[in-house]
Amino acid sequence: MEPTTRHATDPATPSPSARLLPWPSPGGKPCYLLTDSGGGYVSRLADELEATQLAMAADVLDLARPLLDDPTSPYTEVRYAGIRLAECLTDALRVAESRGLRLPAPDTESTEDAYGVVEAEVTERGLST
After folding, report:
1. What pLDDT does 36 receive?
2. Is the torsion defined by CA of 113, 97, 65, 58 positive or negative?
3. What secondary structure, in 3-state letters, does 6-39 show?
4. pLDDT, tens digit, for every residue of 62-103?
């Protein structure tokens, strides 16, 4: 099956196997990759771009921190740093969302069991919630 990218404006809702790509469409909307496996060219390209975006965010933060810590920093430099930091944060949030969407669904039975154990311990000790 050939991978395709789908824009968020398409009528079809992205399936659970759709991957949010680390770049927007030309119109600024999210792009999704629909594929049967994660080892294709576009998936590898997206992985590399995510790694680059996160590394750039760390570099920008390292450069901006001293500027922001200095109360005598010129306004234009602080503003420029803020704009670059906002761009990096946007990229990092897209990466986090993409990776979060690809996590396996939690096992609801074990979660309910864990809550049941905690609730039983509180009731046993005479504490109320």
Report:
1. 64
2. positive
3. EECCCCCCCCCCCEEEEEECCCCCEEEEECCCCC
4. 999 999 999 999 999 999 999 999 999 999 999 999 999 888
Q: Which long-range contacts (CB under 8 A, 24 or more apart) does 117-121 make?
A: none
Partners of 83 in the β-ladder: none
Give ∠ CA 111-113-117 in degrees, rounded to 5: 120
How far is it, in rounded angstroms, from Cα 71 to Cα 117? 52
The Cα–Cα gap between 76 and 72 comes to 12
- CA 77-81-86 angle, 5° bins: 150
Report the number of secondary-structure helices (H) and strands (E) in the chain.
3, 3
Distance CA 43, CA 98 (A): 12
Q: Which residues contact 98 (CB under 8 A, 6 or more apart)?
A: 19, 20, 21, 22, 46, 50
- As a whole number of angstroms, the distance between CA 74 and CA 111 comes to 52
Amino acid at 115: Y
